[in-house]
Design goal:
- The protein is of the alpha/beta class.
- The chain folds into two domains: 264 residues, Aldehyde Dehydrogenase, Chain A, domain 1 (3-Layer(aba) Sandwich), CATH 3.40.605.10; 189 residues, Aldehyde Dehydrogenase, Chain A, domain 2 (3-Layer(aba) Sandwich).
- It is built from 15 helices and 19 strands.
- The strands form five sheets. The protein has a seven-stranded mixed β-sheet with strand order 14-15-16-13-12-17-18, with helices on both faces.
- The longest helix is centred in the first third of the chain and has 21 residues.
- The chain is globular.
- Keywords: Oxidoreductase.
Length: 490
């Protein structure tokens, strides 16, 4: 096991008061404990196990708060988001360490995520001041035609553990900013960060009931979260299976649905590419955040003439990564987020051994019970192997040789997913052909597949998304509804 120091913070919340409903912090009859993924003996927090009754109370509070919040002028709502960004930035060190304690993300990555959350809050505080609605010419000279954007009502946000700060913020900021109220269920592993973010938003001036936090097991709460008749919109990031069940639960009602369901993201490397830079970008995309990103690079298709050189560059880059205590600033790759996630990744590495694929680098899982695994590059994997087809959600990369650009593109598109893809080349024509023909919602040319910015749409195609985009102006479209007004003036 990598050396783990004693840099982890003390428990972040040990009183179980992690339900924030109607402006008050509450506990529950039952609690659950969370432990440092880098040292599973170290308690990092105790949180309330919400019940369906808590969820119903949260909907009561959100529904009661909605009329007043919806009527609040947009500049005032923008001020709340701006203050939240300032307050979160003032607590950046605490938020960083709490995020790392939640899911083991290396401190440098965690700090970047918290600062990105601040940027998202500031972006949406500005977006609220942009023009809203449109005017149209009318066939009737006495009529003025215009549209008005209005909030939807009560939004349910269900967020994952892999980005405990950024993903909640990119859902909550536009949902709240555009005048909705929210019932928020974070992943259990993200509870500490969820509590801190709720504290920040409440301190920024959110009225009671606008944001309601319920912690606990999703399986016990999903019926209450999706079944409430006051639910107007559902936004979810997580596994495809859970997302499908959530979508089915609201399919017979007029509920807007926004789902982001993962990826198996390819990178294509052509022989003319800058191979050294490609290796840097691919390793960043595949291994940082311990590979626990829906946009992580997981498959590489390289033209044969460039394959030996790229293979060696990838091997060397991965071997240089510092795997260890995520609270150490020198660490590149921390542990996986939980023992369950470690077991999942370990099962794929066992499959690689069973299928006798080549391990270019890595491939080991410590037998000491820790959550660390070695960043791994595999080669010689069958195209129909689960290693190629399934989202592993760990630091595992499959490298395959192909004959040419067309073969690489076909292999890249041969997946049920379609979130992000990348191409490395100096050929502008090939780059534009890839942009047009790749089956993914995000396309990166000479960049890692995992980078996103908050002011542009985010989402995938095929099994990766419900097609309702997140972030940027797409968030305005999802979290509002349009009212068309015929105004006769004479």
């Amino acid at each position: 096991m990598p050396h783990v120091t004693s840099l982890a913070p003390p428990p972040t919340r040990t009183d179980g008061r992690s339900l924030f409903i109607g402006g008050s912090w509450l506990t529950a009859d039952a609690v659950y404990e969370r432990f440092n993924p880098a040292d599973l003996a170290q308690l990092t927090g105790t949180y309330a196990l919400a019940t369906p009754d808590h969820v119903r109370t949260a909907y009561d509070a959100a529904a009661a708060a909605f009329p007043g919040w919806a009527a609040t002028p947009a500049p005032e709502r923008a001020n709340v988001l701006r203050r939240a960004a300032d307050l979160l930035e003032a607590r950046v060190d605490e938020a960083t360490r709490r995020l790392t304690a939640d899911m083991g993300k290396a401190l440098r990555d965690a700090r970047g995520e918290v600062l990105r959350s601040c940027a998202i809050l500031r972006y949406f505080s500005g977006e609220l001041l942009q023009p809203s609605g449109e005017t149209y010419p009318s066939a009737d000279p006495s009529t003025t035609l215009l549209t008005i954007e209005e909030p939807l009502g009560v939004v349910c946000a269900i967020t994952p553990w892999n980005f405990p700060s950024a993903i909640p913020v990119w859902k909550l900021a536009p949902a709240i900013g555009f005048g909705n109220t929210v019932v928020w269920k974070p992943a259990e592993a993200a509870s500490g960060s969820a509590v801190l973010l709720t504290e920040v938003l409440a301190a920024a001036g959110l009225p009671d009931g606008v944001l309601n936090l319920v912690t606990g097991k999703g399986s016990a709460l999903s019926g209450a979260l999706t079944g409430d008749p006051r639910l107007a919109a559902l936004t979810f990031t997580g596994s495809g299976g859970v997302g499908t069940r959530l979508r089915q639960a609201v399919a017979d009602r007029n509920v807007k649905v926004q789902l982001e369901l993962g990826g198996k993201n390819p990178a294509v490397v052509l022989a003319d590419a800058d191979l050294e830079d490609a290796a840097v970008q691919i390793v960043r995309g595949a291994m940082l955040s311990t590979g626990q990103r829906c946009t992580a690079t997981s498959r590489v298709y390289v033209e044969r003439s460039a394959a030996p050189r790229l293979r060696e560059l990838l091997r060397a880059r991965v071997a240089e990564l510092v795997v260890g205590d995520p609270f150490d600033e020198a660490t590149d790759v921390g542990p996986l987020a939980s023992a369950e996630q470690r077991d999942t990744v370990a099962s794929y590495l066992k499959l690689a051994r069973d299928e006798q694929v080549e391990v270019v680098v890595g491939g080991s899982v410590p037998d000491d019970g820790s959550c660390f695994v070695s960043p791994t590059v595999l080669a010689g994997v069958r195209p129909d192997s689960r290693l190629v087809c399934e989202e592993i959600f760990g630091p595992v990369l499959v490298l395959e040789e192909v004959d040419d650009f067309d073969a690489a593109l076909a292999a890249a598109n041969d997946t049920e997913f379609g979130l992000s893809s990348g191409l490395f080349t100096r050929d502008l024509g090939k780059a534009m052909a890839f942009v047009r023909r790749t089956q993914s919602g995000l396309v990166h040319v000479n960049r890692e597949t995992a980078g996103v910015e908050p002011h542009v749409p985010f989402g995938g195609v095929k099994g990766s998304s419900s097609m309702a985009r997140e972030q940027g102006k797409a968030a305005r479209q999802f979290f509002t509804t349009t009212k068309t007004v015929y105004l006769r003036t004479t």
